[in-house]
Specification:
Structural class: alpha+beta
Largest sheet: 6 strands, antiparallel
Number of strands: 6
Oligomer: single chain
Order of helices and strands: HHHHHHHEEEEEEHHHH
């Protein structure tokens, strides 16, 4: 009899928990996905990269919502049983209240273990993989990001100005400044017209009738006139942050980042390697290791 009641209670709770978790996750994910549109509109990434990155952020959303969803689900389940007088049936059938409380605590421990597995294994792995996709992605939408009479700096170390852009894709009076070279200070290219073409899945900027001004580190400037030249735009990287953030590092790495802070002589070195302040690292570890243990306390409070 008791096992049947426990299974029935657990089935009702899990169904409500899953329904609320999925519903709120979808809403939050859609809001976040709208914010990620900057990867396409400003950074020039392809829509495939945008959708993949957005989907890989779902485990993070779920992980953040679990405590709140558990609170709502448990409260709704108990109120449903109370309103339908099912709890009264449990008590009159001889079922002790403390046994139901203990069973609810067991359920909370299972949810805690589930969130810990997400925090320690799944979430940071999916976020790190999403970041690697951005890092390996090229600026595939560069042609659509070039605007007339506006300095376009979508990609790193490259500024492009176009006076006019025709419907057939031809650009007139082009100014281009390239600061990506290590040997040279900068390279300025001025051309009368040009096109952006696709070749082997790469964006190639073809320029006609212009001049290349190269500024050397010894303050000398070289001038080269050309009738036609090509620039491989895929060699330029996006401005999107490509190094892993705190939440994208595994827990062991974060723990290793804390150790050198105990030794003041190693603080600066390790701070650079971890790319974060000690307070931010501790905050992230607290979110991963301590936050899930709020769930059993929530279950005890709700049982009152």
């Amino acid at each position: 009899m008791r096992n049947t009641i426990y299974r029935y209670f657990f089935k009702e709770f899990i169904s409500i928990f899953a329904l609320i978790l999925i519903s709120i996750t979808v809403i939050v994910w859609i809001v976040q996905a709208v914010n990620y549109l900057d990867f396409v509109t400003e950074d020039g990434h392809a829509f495939g990269v945008y959708f993949t990155y957005s989907i890989l952020n779902i485990p993070k959303v779920i992980n953040r919502l679990i405590p709140l969803v558990f609170l709502i689900s448990l409260l709704v389940t108990i109120l449903r049983f109370e309103n339908s007088n099912e709890l009264l049936i449990f008590w009159t059938s001889g079922l002790n209240k403390i046994r139901i409380v203990n069973f609810i605590i067991i359920i909370s421990i299972l949810i805690t273990l589930f969130q810990l597995s997400l925090s320690l294994v799944v979430t940071h792995s999916s976020l790190n993989f999403a970041r690697s996709i951005l890092k390996s992605s090229s600026v595939s939408l560069f042609p659509s990001l070039v605007k007339e009479k506006k300095f376009n700096d979508t990609v790193k170390n490259l500024t492009v100005f176009v006076e006019k852009k025709k419907n057939n894709g031809e650009m007139l009076n082009i100014f281009l400044r390239d600061d990506s070279s290590i040997v040279e200070r900068s390279k300025t290219i001025i051309a009368k017209n040009g096109y952006i073409i696709k070749r082997n899945e790469k964006n190639i900027l073809v320029l006609y009738n212009g001049t290349i001004q190269t500024e050397k580190k010894n303050n000398k400037i070289n001038f080269i006139n050309f009738n036609r030249t090509e620039i491989n735009l895929s060699s330029f990287s996006t401005k999107t942050t490509t190094y892993p953030k705190i939440q994208e590092n595994n827990t062991l790495s974060l723990l290793n980042c804390i150790k050198p802070f105990l030794d003041e002589s190693k603080t600066i070195i390790k701070k650079f390697q971890c790319r974060a302040r000690i307070d931010d690292i501790i905050s992230e570890l607290n979110r991963r290791l301590m936050m899930p243990f709020y769930i059993p306390f929530i279950s005890i409070i709700i049982c009152y």
